[in-house]
Protein: Inositol monophosphatase
Amino acid sequence: VNQPSKLFEDDVLACEIEAAAVEMAQGAGDILAAHFGRKISIEYKDKEERDPVTEVDKACQDYLVGEINRRFPDHSILGEEQSEEEAKKAKEDAGATDPPCGDFLWVLDPLDGTTNFLNGLPVYAVSVGVLHKGRPLAGALFIPWPK
Structure:
């Protein structure tokens, strides 16, 4: 009997990464829930002021990046709210020395639905994805409502 080839051979590591993605998404969701409905500062990524970013987006991303760097220091991170300089500094602070993009890439949207969040609509989530050599390995989408 021929078995289909597996895209990722280390089941234990894959499960560890998946569990970490879920746990981190929930942790970031707790940060979002704690700030939902409160007055928060807003900046915009574009001159037309169509793409808002809040202190909560940044706090969630800081949490996620810190956790990933602590648990998987050789993994790369692409975060919606993170500049290249911030990504480099986070890697250095974690003691990581890998090239800009290794085999594993975490893709983060710490507050998916910022406009809804700002308008008090409970239609937002934390999105965390993990790629291994460019292929999806794990992901977590956490919706921190209803409580």
Observations:
- Residues 1-5 have pLDDT under 50 and may be disordered.
- Residues 11-142 form a domain with the Fructose-1,6-Bisphosphatase; Chain A, domain 1 fold (CATH 3.30.540.10).
- The longest helix spans residues 11-35.
- The first strand starts at residue 42 and ends at 44.
